[in-house]
Amino acid sequence: MNAMYFLIETIFNLFLMVVLLRFWMQWARVDFYNPVSQAVVKATSFAVNPLRKVIPGFAGIDVASLVLAFIVAGTKVSVLMLVFSGHWDAAKAAIGGLLTVLREAFSLVFWILVIRALLSWVVQGYNPAAAVFEQLTEPLLRPIRKIIPPLGGLDLSIMVVLIGMMFLQHLVMDFMH
Asked: End-to-end distance of the chain based on CA atoms, in angstroms?
C-alpha cells in the first residue's frame, strides 16, 4: 500500500507543481517564448484552456490556473481518501486540497530559489532554464535587495526569502494545529 500511496502522491504533486509554475510564470511575466516556459504551457494547456473559457482572469491574475491547482489537489486528496479509507468527505477534500496547494506552492518556491542559487554558481552565459528561474524569483528578491544590498559580491536575498518562507510555512502549520 505504501507504493500505491507514493505513486498517487507523486503523480498528482508533479502535475500540481507544473500548474502552480504556470500561474507563477504569468504572475512574474516570464518570457513565454523561452523553451522552459513553452514546455510548462504545453503540459498544462489541455486543462487550463477549457477553464479559461468559463473562468476569466482578474487583475492580471490567472484565476483559471489557480482553480485548476485546487481541483488537482482536491482530486488527489479525494483519491487518497477513497483508496485508503474507502469513504469520501467533501469538506475534508476541500480543506485538504487547499492545504496541499499551499504546501506545494511553498515547496515550489523553495526549490526554484535553491536551484537558482546553485545555477548562479555553475552557469556561465545565457541558459534558458536559468533565465526562467531568474525571472520567476526577481519579484521576490528585489524588495529584499533594497533593504540588504549584496555584501562584497555575496547576495543574501535568497537566504532571507528562504528563511521568511520557512517561517511563514511554520506559522501556517501552527495555525492549522
From this structure: 27
Q: What angle do CA 55, 30, 51 make, to 5 degrees?
A: 15
Range with lowest mean pLDDT among 24-38, 120-134, 163-177: 163-177
Phi, psi of 175 (to 5 degrees): -65, -35
Do residues 103 and 16 touch, judged by C-beta distance below 8 A?
no
Q: Give the tens place of pLDDT for each residue, 137-161.
A: 999 999 999 998 888 778 889 999 9
Dist CA 33 CA 31 (whole Å)? 5
Domain ranges of the chain: 2-176
The enclosing H or E element of 39 equals: helix 35-54
Contact 144, 160 (CB under 8 A): yes
C-alpha cell at 125: 552565459
Q: What is the pLDDT of residues 49-64, one digit of tens each?
A: 999 999 988 887 889 9
On average, the pLDDT of the chain sits at 91
- Which residues, in sequence order, are CB contacts of 26 under 8 Å at separation 6+? 62, 65
CA 74 to CA 90: how far, in whole Å? 9
